[in-house]
């Protein structure tokens, strides 16, 4: 019997308290590109027995919006892995998993310049849990380091870099996949873009005359947030 042949990770699904704020974070921190909306707010909500059975969620849970983004690949296209954002409402919304909890508990991104990547994520609204640390044991190397952060909605994020040979490679039968080095990209504030990021014009309370929000490099505390997010929800 042989293992099922897969070609790699296609996308990672993340449930967030507010789709637009999460989109802004991923765009600012990683240059994520919006590919499409699987469920636009104007077409939702989507719920009922079929959704509950298909997703394994409690009775009464509804999808409000679903969006697919991608992390840019080597030439600023969309060859990188997908990130699928979900926004739900319903009887159960638990806090994000911590590394000690069962389940898929963090996502790791490779960075050529770890310190710069950490600064970008913090400026985008993430919280650094501890400064970059040396990778341990079989992953060790003079310049091999990692750091853990928390996204604005509370999920755990890892940034790591390992440009130096690692001890485990000396006896390994196969290599480990490493993302290709991308072309050097201009930072968002100098990329000649409009300075705006499209948002859902059908979100309750947002008029069609203002369907975009600024994405210039500003401190996280002055970011636009969703005024229609229920009181007490996770920021």
Topology:
Blueprint: E1 11-15, H1 19-30, E2 33-39, E3 46-47, H2 49-55, E4 62-70, E5 82-89, E6 107-110, H3 114-123, E7 127-128, E8 133-134, E9 145-150, E10 156-161, E11 196-198, E12 212-214
Parallel strand pairs: 1-5, 6-10
Antiparallel strand pairs: 2-4, 3-4, 4-5, 7-9, 8-9, 9-10, 11-12
What does this entry look like structurally?
Strand 9 and strand 10 (156-161) form a beta hairpin. With 235 residues, this protein is α+β, with helices and mostly antiparallel strands. The protein is built from three helices and twelve strands. Helix 1 (19-30) packs antiparallel against helix 3. Mean pLDDT is 77; it is low at 185-198 and 205-235. Helices cover 12% and strands 24% of the residues. It is globular and about 55 Å long. The strands form three sheets. Strands 1, 2, 3, 4 and 5 form a five-stranded mixed beta sheet that branches.
């Amino acid at each position: 019997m042989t293992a099922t042949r897969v070609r790699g990770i296609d996308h990672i699904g993340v449930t967030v308290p507010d789709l637009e704020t999460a989109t802004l974070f991923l765009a600012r921190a990683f240059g994520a590109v919006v590919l499409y909306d699987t469920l636009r707010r104007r077409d939702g909500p989507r719920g009922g027995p079929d959704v509950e059975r298909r997703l394994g969620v409690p009775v009464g849970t509804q999808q409000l919006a679903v969006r697919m983004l991608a992390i840019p690949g080597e030439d600023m296209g969309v060859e990188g892995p997908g990130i699928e954002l979900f926004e739900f409402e319903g009887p159960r919304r638990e806090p994000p998993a911590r590394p000690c909890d069962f389940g898929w508990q963090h996502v790791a991104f490779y960075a050529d310049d770890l310190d710069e990547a950490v600064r970008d994520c913090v400026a985008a609204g993430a919280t650094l849990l501890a400064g970059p640390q040396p990778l341990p044991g079989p992953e060790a190397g003079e310049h091999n380091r990692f750091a853990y952060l928390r996204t604005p909605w509370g999920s755990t994020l890892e940034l790591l870099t390992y440009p130096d040979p690692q001890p485990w490679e000396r006896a390994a039968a196969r290599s480990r996949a490493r993302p290709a080095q991308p072309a050097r990209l201009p930072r968002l504030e100098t990329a000649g873009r409009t300075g705006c990021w499209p948002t859902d014009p059908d979100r309750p309370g947002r008029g069609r005359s203002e369907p975009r929000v600024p994405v210039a490099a500003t401190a996280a505390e002055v970011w636009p947030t969703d005024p229609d997010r229920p009181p007490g929800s996770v920021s």
